[in-house]
UniProtKB/TrEMBL annotation:
Keyword Transmembrane helix appears in the UniProt entry: no
Keywords: 2Fe-2S, Iron, Iron-sulfur, Metal-binding
Family according to the record: Belongs to the adrenodoxin/putidaredoxin family.
Organism: Stachybotrys chlorohalonatus (strain IBT 40285)
The protein's name: 2Fe-2S ferredoxin-type domain-containing protein
Amino acid sequence: MSASRHIPRSLAKLRNGGLRTIQSHGFHNRTLNATASPVAWSRNSTRVPMSPLTPPSSRGFSTTIPNRHKHLDEPKPGEELWITFIDKDGEQHKLAVCEGDNLLDIAQSHDLEMEGACGGSCACSTCHVIVTDEDYYDKIPEPEDDENDMLDLAFGLTETSRLGCQVKMTKELDGVVVKLPTMTRNLQASDFS
Ligand code: FES
């Protein structure tokens, strides 16, 4: 069959059957097409019956339990370590935490304003904290090169600055007080141009 004959025949199909099929699929036209049996065209141009459409069942809303970012376990009684965050407004938050928790996770699990843009992979400086007491600062293991590189980019760097995601709570740090800087620097591509 030539292409020129094939096209008009296809159009005829659309007018006679295809249109009806389209209408019967339309939710709003269901009553108008109640008597028309839904059909579709198979590859070999024969009509094949289709199962009648059923309206979508009504679906209710569902809710999921909010997943707090980096939720941490509560420390067992008697095993708590204490840390105090001083937020940007100067408010103090004294928290009981477990050994091994890092400061970014602690802050975020208590809804304190610490961004942690890179998710704790030492690739930003938005988890910058300032250890208020030098004695505590000296008890934290030395920063790796990666952390030092990121600290160089931190806004308001001080002598006792660290990245929260790289500092884990230890027994030696029990009672530490850290301050959240008033601003953090969220790097953008334009910062490197
Ligand atoms: S969250 Fe990015 S360096 Fe700590």
